[in-house]
Specification:
This protein is of the alpha/beta class. It has a domain of about 230 residues: Rossmann fold (3-Layer(aba) Sandwich). The protein has 12 helices and 12 strands. The strands form 3 sheets. Strands 3-2-1-4-5-6-10 form a 7-stranded parallel beta sheet, with helices on both faces. Helix 1 crosses helix 6 and helix 2 crosses helix 3. It starts with a strand and ends in an 11-residue tail after the last helix. This is Nucleoside-diphosphate-sugar epimerase.
Length: about 350
């Protein structure tokens, strides 16, 4: 296939491009002129330049392609306004499907997130692609939920086969700008963040990329596939980091109610002082005291994704952070002898 990949230079995108080329697909990488292209070093896709918010650029990039993998999005969890993240997501979805329709492209793989699926207060309850986040508060979570609903509607309107990939917390190499996911581990090791009551699902970026590539020929129409690894308590991630590195993250023992109150106070003080808060009330609302636990069996069954375990995923994430000098010198000195480095694309 000739595949248009939006967000091709991003953390997931660079791995998708690599795997597509490895499988002898032709790749047209859609990036902005100002994009950081380090993740694509050594690869030779065809480049198309523009912004997914520009319908003309999107249409031009899609011409002659057989499928589109749409990953371009604003990935940050602290924003000045909700529109800063939501509007690009909605515009991007609309322009991708309009471009596909104009050029007769009948297959779109759409990157969403478990942010659109939501979380449970019960660690025994596994959420799946049948669930929606009906209580989204944080701008990123709102954007992912609303833009994916728009994509589902557009796919049906234009009769395009849509496969949705909803990754969990994506960790691993080639993350040059350090996404909020890898930053979690970075902050825990550097002492800037705390583990908290609740649960997460960790997945390696290369497994997420493999799901995207598989979805070009597999996957049911308009089906949402959760691509994740192990469901694990956040506190247990801290224990695993201690075992792997010798560094034990601080654990926040307070419950959801007290933590939310604390978050509100911190955010208010930061606004008064005109500084960026380390976290916001709406982000704490999404995660603390909740469980991002998922049933990922459909992705394994339909897409053939067998993800790495959490410890291997964490180890490769730490190796990447070390290679990019993202750990404090004293932390790096302690961690480096325990974590072997290896090629980023391995």
């Amino acid at each position: 296939m000739k595949v248009l990949v939006t967000g091709a230079n991003g953390h997931i995108g660079s791995h998708v491009v690599r795997q597509l080329l490895d499988q002898n697909h032709e790749v047209r990488a859609f990036v902005r002129k100002s994009s950081d292209l380090r993740g694509l070093n050594g690869l030779k896709p065809e480049f198309a330049y523009g912004d997914v918010k520009d319908p003309a650029a999107m249409e031009a990039a899609a011409e002659g392609c057989d499928a589109i993998i749409h990953m371009a999005a604003v990935y940050k969890t602290i924003a000045k306004s909700i529109e800063e993240i939501v509007e690009p997501a909605l515009q991007g979805a609309e322009n991708v499907f309009k471009a596909a329709h104009k050029h007769g492209i009948k297959r779109v793989v759409y990157t969403s997130s478990v942010a659109s699926i939501g979380f449970s207060y019960d660690p025994q309850a596994l959420r799946s692609g049948e669930d929606w986040n009906d209580d989204a508060q944080n701008a990123y979570y709102v954007a992912k939920t609303r833009s994916e609903r728009a994509a589902q509607k557009l796919a049906r309107e234009y009769d395009i086969h849509l496969v949705v990939i909803c990754p969990a917390i994506v960790l691993g190499p080639n993350d040059y700008r350090i996404t909020p996911s890898n930053q979690l581990v970075m902050d825990w090791l550097n002492g800037f963040g705390q583990t908290y009551p609740g649960g997460l699902n960790l997945v390696d970026v290369r497994d997420v990329a493999a799901a995207h590539v598989a979805a070009l020929s597999k996957g049911e129409n308009c089906k949402r596939y959760v691509v994740g690894g192990e469901n694990i308590e956040v506190k247990e991630i801290g224990v695993a980091l201690k075992r792997l590195t010798g560094v034990k993250p601080i654990h926040l023992p307070t419950g959801r109610g007290l933590t939310l109150t604390f978050a509100r106070v911190v955010e208010t003080l930061c606004k008064l002082l005109h500084i960026k808060p380390p976290f916001t009330y709406d982000l704490v609302y999404e995660v603390v005291g909740r469980y991002a636990y998922y049933d990922c069996s459909e992705a394994a069954k339909d897409l053939g994704v067998e993800p790495r375990d959490a410890e291997e995923t964490l180890k490769d994430c730490i190796a990447w952070l070390l290679s990019q000098n993202k750990l404090k010198p004293r932390v790096a000195a302690k961690v480096a002898p325990k974590i072997p480095t290896h090629p980023a694309s391995a």
